[in-house]
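Input structure tokens:
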């Protein structure tokens, strides 16, 4: 703990009281780089909690701009941010929350061609995007880079979180191909507070992975029903025909 400033010791005092984190775990957080793909409904609360937790570097990847219909759930933004680039405005908000955290904003659209370059050097990757092309690109890059992937999704009143790590099933084992009738929040709607629940759970999983605390959702899928306030966890298995990890 001597390596922390007085301000840092006060800021992270509640973490350091936890036997599962303590000083060593907080040092791991400070040394970690977390890449967040998508600064939207899931990425916004995840980024806020990871910045507050003292993650050393947060890399935000998104090519979108803030719009009024984002503000119902993307809580890192304010009304005056409308029209501005998401990663730039999110970076300003996160720096204001915790100036000890280095924010690496990437105003880029992640694709299969640039995914590895954008995600290189991350210790944990969070995917909060809402289209399968991007999810597949993130998953493939995470697998090649040998980095744990925390994946979240929401729609209407339902959400889910899973962790895909080397040696276990990957996202394509769960979703081999994009569903032809895939729903998006833009089409079917989503209750704003649900994105906060799932985004916060994604941040929690990242913190557990980095600090070696508890049991992350490795190879497991947590499904949350916001209307009934019920959750269940499903164990995932590797798909022998998975196009991403079948050769591992």
């Amino acid at each position: 703990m001597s390596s922390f400033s007085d301000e840092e010791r006060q800021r992270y005092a509640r973490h350091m009281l936890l036997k599962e984190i303590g000083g060593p775990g907080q040092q791991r957080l400070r040394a970690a780089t977390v890449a967040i793909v998508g600064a939207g409904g899931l990425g916004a609360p995840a980024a806020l909690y990871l910045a507050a937790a003292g993650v050393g570097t947060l890399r935000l990847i998104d090519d979108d701009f803030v719009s009024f219909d984002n503000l119902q759930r993307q809580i890192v933004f304010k009304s005056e941010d409308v029209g501005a680039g998401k990663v730039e405005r999110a970076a300003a908000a996160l720096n204001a929350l915790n100036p000890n955290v280095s924010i690496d904003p990437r105003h880029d659209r992640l694709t299969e061609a640039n995914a590895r370059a954008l995600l290189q050097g991350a210790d944990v990757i969070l995917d909060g995007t809402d289209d399968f092309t991007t999810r597949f690109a993130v998953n493939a890059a995470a697998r090649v880079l040998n980095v744990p992937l925390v994946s979240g999704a929401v729609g209407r009143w339902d959400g889910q979180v899973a962790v895909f790590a080397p040696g276990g099933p990957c996202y394509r084992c769960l979703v081999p191909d994009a569903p032809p009738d895939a729903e998006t929040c833009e089409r079917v709607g989503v209750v704003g507070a649900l994105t906060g629940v799932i985004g916060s759970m994604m941040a929690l999983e990242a913190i557990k992975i980095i600090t070696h605390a508890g049991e992350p959702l490795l190879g497991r899928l947590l499904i949350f029903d916001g209307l009934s306030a019920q959750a269940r966890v499903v164990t995932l298995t590797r798909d022998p025909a998975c196009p991403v990890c079948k050769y591992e």
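The longest strand covers residues 149-155. The chain is about 35% helix and 20% strand.
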